[in-house]
Amino acid sequence: xxxxxxxxxxxxxxxxxxxxxxxxxxxxxxxxxxxxxxxxxxxxxxxxxxxxxxxxxxxxxxxxxxxxxxxxxxxxxxxxxxxxxxxxxxxxxxxxxxxxxxxxxxxxxxxxxxxxxxxxxxxxxxxxxxxxxxxxxxxxxxxxxxxxxxxxxxxxxxxxxxxxxxxxxxxxxxxxxxxxxxxxxxxxxxxxxxxxxxxxxxxxxxxxxxxxxxxxxxxxxxxxxxxxxxxxxxxxxxxxxxxxxxxxxxxxxxxxxxxxxxxxx
Length: 265
Known about the structure:
Distance between the termini: 50 Å
Helix content: 55-70%
Strand order of the largest sheet: 1-2
Strand content: 5-15%
Number of strands: 4
Largest sheet: 2 strands, antiparallel
Radius of gyration: 19 Å
Order of helices and strands: EHHEHHHHHHHHHHEHHE
């Protein structure tokens, strides 16, 4: 289904952020009939507050399950759908808050509300809903891009899609989301080293190899420690000139030696 990517008016975005904790939060947290909640939000996020860009995308609705965060197959499919629909965005466009706020509250509103409803009863739920909706806040821009409900899926696909693997370019995507992907994405992709795709793929190749060979068990330290290793190497070598295989070799050799890594007995 071909659509045009929407975006929010700048003044409107400022207004709803100012009003968020006063009025909008109560609408998001309303546990009444979902169609009523969607109608209330649709009344807010409509023209002229929402505008259409000249960028076309092929909209695919996201899958909803009992628990988005724990269903590996569902999450994997949703990341692929976002990639198929929105890979036309450049990284600079994908960093634009006004695009994701508009998408979340229009085409992907059912998914956004589904995830929000899973947060009910959690500590600091209002702040978590803010973090899942907007891309500015206490955590800084890059981290915030990895917390927004939709932007998160885009960046996972962007960093893990392996076009060199013609049989399954999503093999690293599937590996990444098979574990608690939200926290791992923040721990991993917020590092500046991931501006180079080959470095990212080399690190992921190394971590996946260590897990597949039953040398380590995956946890968030596998990702954060791997980034630290490459940052240390960057202090003495030009890592942008290193090959993907060279990066993988470093991770395979050094990651099992680092703190908080769980070795397979």
